[in-house]
Write a structure and sequence with these properties.
It is built from 15 helices and 18 strands. With about 475 residues, it is an alpha+beta fold. Helix 7 crosses helix 9. The structure holds flavin-adenine dinucleotide. Flavin-adenine dinucleotide (FAD) binds next to strand 3, helix 4, strand 10 and helix 11.
Length: about 475
């Protein structure tokens, strides 16, 4: 079948208003960082699982690739098609129904195109918490969260998207529907296909719905903004907070002064405490579940001890919901401020907490020596040993030109250092297009061989999201 014939088939299936071409397809062909610009025959917008299966089948028969897309907020170019082979973007955004909230099983079943915020709200309306939380929650979708195994700001208490998912419904690369939706906590019936699809970034099938875990809503959440002299002190504060607050510690975010100054510059309306005076700040969140437990006191006591021990230099505790919201808004505005400042060399890394402070100091010094004037925008989920360790061009230097000239060398410097301390080159964003070709340097040939075998078995024609995750070829790795 040729391209016009496939388009006609899709229009017959979905109706003309749900097959977008030309300018209407434009925004779907560019990633959210505006780094990747791809091409697609069209954007197909099915309304239900049966239509997804029909679209995938028609594309398979036509020899056309399928690129699943949710909110298009991914940061590694995973949802952007390549220029070749010809592909259809399969947008799940019309599949946005919360199918069921099951209080007895503490589960919620939602279609893949529901936004994360919609699921959070549906859970809250029924008196439950769905704890996945991130800056993109107004736009990112359940399907995208699972396909990238997203993390966010509450992983240290509730786990990442994988740990929050009990069942899946998906369409295979051949267009068959797999009905794996259930809310069971125990189910050892062969290979766990759910875990294959989670984190596969659209390369093994299309997620159409998911059954997700719910938790009791905390009675209240207390948030503190803390100034610290060094990253080492932040690591020590984390240990103290874990010890004192235990499972009540639901957020521990780290930010350096450069990241906060960027927020101040681009969003002057936000109040960024200590932004110009402290080298590092952390945002701590304490969730209180027990009605008899005092709300503010445990966190106040923790901060007093930390002050006495010299771990922190200053702290403010939010007293109102609006203040709490304001503090989180500052943290969540860092990626947006970075986008305003232009392209940068992004690293979404995990480093063992015990190695974190030395990593930050040594790698920062090595970068400053090799690329004088670079600005380190360092922030992230310290509680999960996950940092966004981003390198911005020196003040006054064109960011795009800097990126083009130095990205490869900066990546090697930073990621080799991550590898040396036993870290991960992708903590929560995935591989997509961005890290595909550097994966063999850091992933063992055995692991890559197993991944290729899985891909070959499930998608022998390579039609699901080609050019993502798996490298084209495998040069020698670091071992
Ligand atoms: P998309 O961007 O549309 O797609 C991402 C990948 O998933 C692609 O490979 C795509 O092919 C695949 N995919 C999408 N839907 C499906 C489906 N239904 N079936 C199969 N494959 C599918 N990420 C974090 O982990 N933690 C954060 O704290 C975080 N903060 C962010 C803050 C901002 C401001 C922004 C812009 C992004 C942030 N992200 C974060 C990244 C991003 O929001 C997440 O990766 C999110 O999970 C992507 O969801 P999406 O629906 O936008 O997916």
């Amino acid at each position: 079948m040729n391209a016009p014939a496939l388009l006609n088939t899709l229009v017959r299936m979905l109706g003309p208003s749900h097959v977008l071409t030309g300018n209407d397809a434009g925004p779907f062909c560019t990633d959210q960082r505006k780094r990747y610009h791809g091409q697609a025959l069209c954007v197909a917008r099915p309304a239900n699982t049966e239509e997804v299966a029909q679209v995938v089948k028609a594309c398979a028969e036509a020899g056309v690739a399928v690129v699943p897309q949710g909110g298009n907020t991914g940061l590694v170019g995973g949802a952007t098609p390549l220029a070749a082979p010809p592909s259809v973007i399969l947008s799940l955004r019309r599949m946005n129904r919360v199918r069921r909230v099951d209080g007895a099983s503490q589960t919620l079943t939602a279609e893949a195109g529901c936004t994360l915020q919609q699921v959070q709200q549906a859970a809250a309306d029924a008196g439950w918490l769905y704890p996945l939380r991130m800056g993109s929650e107004g736009s990112c979708t359940v399907g995208g969260n699972l396909a990238t195994n997203a993390g966010g700001t509450q992983v240290l208490r509730y786990g990442n998207a994988r740990e929050l998912c009990l069942g899946l419904e998906a369409v295979t690369p051949q267009g068959a529907i797999w009905h794996g939706l259930h809310g069971l906590r125990k189910n050892n019936t062969g290979y766990d296909l759910r875990h294959l699809l989670i984190g596969s970034e659209g390369t093994l099938g299309v997620i159409t719905a998911a059954t997700l875990k719910l938790f009791p809503l905390p009675r209240t959440q207390v948030t503190a903004w803390v100034a610290l002299p060094s990253a080492q002190m932040a690591v020590e504060l984390l240990a103290l907070a874990r010890n004192r607050l235990d499972a009540g510690l639901t957020g521990f975010e780290l930010m350096n002064a450069t990241a906060l100054q960027l927020v101040q510059r681009h969003f002057p309306q936000l109040r960024t405490p200590f932004a110009s005076t402290a080298p590092w700040c952390t945002l701590l969140e304490h969730s209180v579940y027990d009605a008899t437990e005092p709300a503010q006191q445990p966190l106040q006591d923790l901060l007093e001890t930390a002050l006495q021990q010299g771990l922190i230099s200053n702290a403010v505790v939010a007293e109102t919901v609006a203040q709490t919201h304001g503090l989180w808004q500052v943290r969540e505005s860092i990626p947006l401020a970075q986008a305003e400042a232009g392209l940068n060399v992004k690293h979404d890394i995990a480093v063992p907490i015990s190695a974190m402070a030395a990593f930050v100091a040594d790698t920062g010094a090595a970068l400053a020596a090799a690329f004088p004037g670079v600005r380190m925008i360092t922030f992230g989920h310290l509680g999960d040993s996950n940092l966004h360790y981003n390198v911005q061009a020196p003040e006054g230097v064109d960011p795009a030109a800097f990126l083009q000239q130095h990205e490869a060398a900066i990546n090697t410097l930073v990621l080799d250092a991550v590898h040396r301390v036993g870290g991960s080159i992708s903590a929560e964003h995935g591989i997509g297009q961005l890290k595909r070709n550097i994966l063999p340097r850091y992933q063992s040939p055995v692991a890559l061989g197993m991944m290729r075998a899985i891909k070959q078995a499930l998608d022998p024609h390579g039609s699901m999201n080609p050019g993502k995750v798996l490298p084209a070829q495998s040069p020698q790795g670091l071992g």
